[in-house]
Amino acid sequence: MKSDFIMQPPHPETEWSSCTGYSESAVLIERILDVSLKDASICTGPDDMYYMTGTTDGSSLQVWTSADLQSWTGPAEVWSLEQEGTWQKESGGSSGICAPEIHYVKGTFWITYGLSQGGTGLLQSFSDSVMGPYQDMGKITADGQDASLFEDEDGAVYWIYSNGKIAKMNRDMTGLEETPRMVEVQPWKVAGREDHPSYIGNLQVGSYGAFLYKRDGYYYMFCADALKRMGSDAVDTFVAVSQSIYGPYSRRYLALPHGGQISLFSGPDNQLYASFTGCGSYSLVEHYPSIVPMSFGGPGFIRPIEGAVLEKGAVGSLKPVADFLIRDPHISTGPDETYYLTGTSDKPHRNFWDRNNQLHLWSSIDLKEWNHVAKVWDLSENGTWENNIYENPCLWAPEMIYLYGTFWITYSLQGGGTGMIKSISGHAEGPYIDMGRMTNTDIDSSLFQDEDGQVYFVWQDGKIAKMKKDMTGFAEDPCKLLSSDGQRVGYEGAFIVKYKGKYILGAAEWNGDKRVDGTYDLMYAVADDLYGPYTPRRLAVPHGGHGTMFIDHNGNLMSTFFGNDRTAPFRTRVGIVLLQAEEDGAGLCIAPCCE
């Protein structure tokens, strides 16, 4: 395996390794048929027509036809379980056809299928037509479901089914000539990253819906699996890759968000498409069939084309408000109601982890147009204690607040430790003086001023301490704010904002895989008192990660956003999400507002 992405994935925030790609002309995917259908499968016929089937009521196999992938006719019933079924009805339990697929192999059409009680079968068209009539080729396997066919370049045909099982078929296509074997993915672990199969000890591509595709010498084994990205009910499509049909296969990676069980086929102009039924409440086409053009980002690396919006809600179609690179963005308001933005900058080395020792500031009067104010701090020029700890210190996650007639900025260092600077002019652009080291370890520091004027230092995963009046240090021993169930709100990026009389504690958390295929989400908990108790944490902004909430001039609750996972709408650009906050049975419910 030669692909760097396959063997050693980069940090998921890099655009070249992303699953979703940003485009100014992005469009939302749409259902191609206004019929609820599971396990949608599409095949290209020799007549340049497209044929689709999927799970309906389990009593028959139905087919839809299209010449352009937009207008579909049907359904036409091509096989009936009640009228034509044989062995399929032998089971004492309830029987039903599920996950059928259409394939054009060896000069005719075939339909693979599974039974709801287990077992897989095959039908062959007697004619050149997808409409049949069909010959029952019998039971192919007594176990599993989600059957599929794959014809290799040498003419050999393979039975693919369930969670990645594979076996070569005999020449007359009446059964298997070998015992099925399971495709196993390669687990891997890198410090700070966790891949789902490796940390649960499960080496399979996914749970169901196996489908095999080959291109440029690479075999792509697809399966569906529930990852709990965004803490949701999404079922995603994963893939593992090999240069040999039996393996060894690579690590798995997420190829199609919310895709579930898919099939791949060639469309107009030989464009590769994935057909699928939207899986999960975040899918734009939940329970309905759709297609997405697919692309290749490198050897063995398949993903949707740029500009295909796959996720519903305000975040799914979010666009950046500025084009400069930034991480951990923070927005606050000055005394003249100007908005100020700061965050982890990639200057001067255009690498967030390589001596990015500068702290930059931008301003806006409307949250839309942003102007660079100044470089207000540079560790190589202004740093003191930082340079005694690290040879090439990196400055991370600065946050600004206006207190006591001037501006204050907290910041973190790569490797741990937090500091604070103060503007001695009363202006946002400074100049600033060093207020010293606030914590010896940890990162992601923030300041919160309560309505009584008291200021608090908040950092890492919900740690908090009251500040001295002169802001030179803590006035009390730190403690950690936890939810009522004992869980932390997130593992980094903690902040506090007060809204509608409630204290909102926010922080970033990886849901699903950590720094691989999961989502870097903004979580929150709410309390009536600053020190709690806080409600159990909930998701505020999917993909929001280390954003921070703020209140705009109109009293709206907002959140910053920068994208830090493979399925975010964009990466390392600043976005702004309007939030709605309403009481429900569990307290204050915060979610992106779609209006």
UniProtKB/TrEMBL annotation:
The keyword Hydrolase applies. Pfam families: Glyco_hydro_43. Keywords: Glycosidase, Hydrolase. The keyword Hydrolase applies. InterPro entries: Glyco_hydro_43 (IPR006710), Glyco_hydro_beta-prop_sf (IPR023296), Glycosyl_Hydrlase_43 (IPR051795). PANTHER family: BETA-XYLOSIDASE, SECRETED PROTEIN. Belongs to the glycosyl hydrolase 43 family. This is Family 43 glycosylhydrolase. It comes from Paenibacillus alba.
